[in-house]
């Protein structure tokens, strides 16, 4: 008989037998099939548990709690439990390991090593509760300078000579990252877009098309054109505040996409414009983009296709040479540039790439901002940065490093109920977020989810104003690239050099 | 676009519903932006036919145009001809460059010459008929959806990666050679390059040849017999193609075809492991 070299359970499902009412609500709520009823009592198979907490929350008697599995592996500081699990999984099943959300390796966060400046004596701070602090952003390409035609000597008749590019206004420097219908549910999309509209911020459509139900949110949506061109038609191009060519994603730089056919139900088929049940493969590169010149060509094509009415931008994953690539992209005509750091999220990506490819967003923002400045291009482009903007402190620091807008996704999902169990690719999300199964999707109340997203970002914006006030700055645009308001306290001064940030005390 | 309006007045030779535009009025080709703005202005005025002369590499002609009208191009249009196009008919008297019909949704293209690389990239619908040869990666990631079904017919030969990632529609390659004296013969070289249909998971490629193709097949592609069903599938389009380019239909259909189909609709189904680590 073959010995089962199986991965030991991660979690232990504990049922308090005295409190359990045997109502079996846990059976219907657990989408991972942990629970069963043998006629007398509820049985829990802990090895299937992902610790999503659905049963814990839904149990009327509060009789369930999940703990970490106590089963003990011989300790080894180098061959960690995770590495041994990876080897068991691959030697048992074979195949490329999948993963979801962002990089979960305990790599030190550079944001956490940065401290903010505040006013003392020499310049007064501002009270954000009683004075105006502007968090509005104009999104799109800006002219380098303005030229006027003076028609009369007394300057009564003056007209603008400079061509003004399409711009739109958002009330907070926040963008909800690109999550397609497919990676998340219809209800989750609906909640995000409604929140974005109410907050007047922007949300990304992801690369899987835009369902016609969401066209009404177009003024707050940036649609994405990726290598698979899923759902890209004239309506898609015309129902967007901006268009983004997706070259890469922080979680999987250089990688394509693969939505398996079994997940392509009628809703997804309609949105992606492919037959039901058919695999949706996104090629690794765009096959019409093999160079910066080709990219410039697609930017021009999209501008031509939308008759120069909306900004067209490019998203790249933060990789080793992001700075020169960014320069090429801006020279190529991009009105905005999105940088996605190595901690950026995904619904499904090979673990090897998610955990090991790319560079931290903090370094990428600073490097790109600096290089664009050297090339006299920085003022022309709107720079969006994402890849683990976890809370308002990260948002503030990203802007101070050089971003115009901070992009985040996982905080939005967590606000809606996600417990970060990292099983998105299995399509079984018990909270109705990362799933397409109808009985699960309807668990997500759109209105409540929307309200929670609005609360979250209102709080962030208030905190942003608090920080700006403390710094004596009355507009977020004056914080952008203001690296003198940051200090570094981490272990590696070389990082401070690259960031262009002084060490604390300097 | 004030400049455009002035230019229009200079070299427009317009009559009611047929508009002619000279794209090189002073011997110098005009910028693609100006040219396309002129075309867009015409299409908005319900013009049914636009004839372009002296086209010389202007890109994005027909980009995201919708409706029922025709553009006739004399010269060589630049890359991305008919990108995102949804309905119109474009006829080219000349060769084409790369990415003809990029992400096209509906419409038709007739190219009286050769085509470049990556023709029909991600096209979801419409027909692209090319009289001559084409380059690399033609028909890559073509899709189909509901009543939309893209068709590319190539009179001559294709190069490597024909029908890569193909997710729907039909590609036909005929292997014909058009001699200067007007006669049509079969080519004496290979009809296509290597990596034929690599990654194909829907749709089919028809090649009019008896050449041995096994060694050229890409990952996930197989050769199946050309049967009655295949004839039925391509017959009407082939007939239309032959009519368009004045080629005897019998000459085309009476030779052996080989059909490339996907081995599976899920070529990469077993690639991944979703165990919880």
Number of helices of chain A: 15
Structural classification of chain B: alpha/beta
Number of strands of chain A: 23
| Poorly predicted ranges of chain A | none
Question: What is the CATH domain class of the domain at 114-277 in chain B?
Answer: Mainly Beta
Major sheet size, sense and barrel closure of chain A? 8 strands, parallel, barrel
* Structural class by helix and strand composition of chain A: alpha/beta
Oligomer: heterodimer
Radius of gyration of chain A: 25 Å
Description of the molecule:
The complex is a heterodimer of chains A (506) and B (277). Chain A has 506 residues and is an alpha/beta fold. Helices cover 29% and strands 17% of the residues of chain A. Chain A has two domains: 11-99, Alpha-Beta Plaits (2-Layer Sandwich), CATH 3.30.70.20; 168-503, TIM Barrel (Alpha-Beta Barrel). Chain A is globular. In chain A, 50% of the residues are buried. Chain B is 17% helix and 26% strand. Chain B has helices at 2-11, 32-44, 228-245, 249-253, and strands spanning 18-22, 49-56, 70-76, 86-93, 106-111, 127-130, 151-154, 167-173, 176-178, 184-186, 202-207, 221-225, 258-262, 272-273. In chain B, the strands form two sheets. Chain B has an eleven-stranded mixed β-sheet with strand order 1-2-3-4-5-6-7-8-11-13-12, covered by helices on one side. In chain B, strands 9-10 form a two-stranded antiparallel sheet. In chain B, β1, α2 and β2 (49-56) form a beta-alpha-beta unit. In chain B, α1 (2-11) crosses α2 (32-44). The longest helix of chain B is centred in the C-terminal third of the chain and has 18 residues, at 228-245. Chain B starts with a helix and ends with a strand. Chains A and B meet through α3, β5 and α7 of A and α2 and β14 of B.
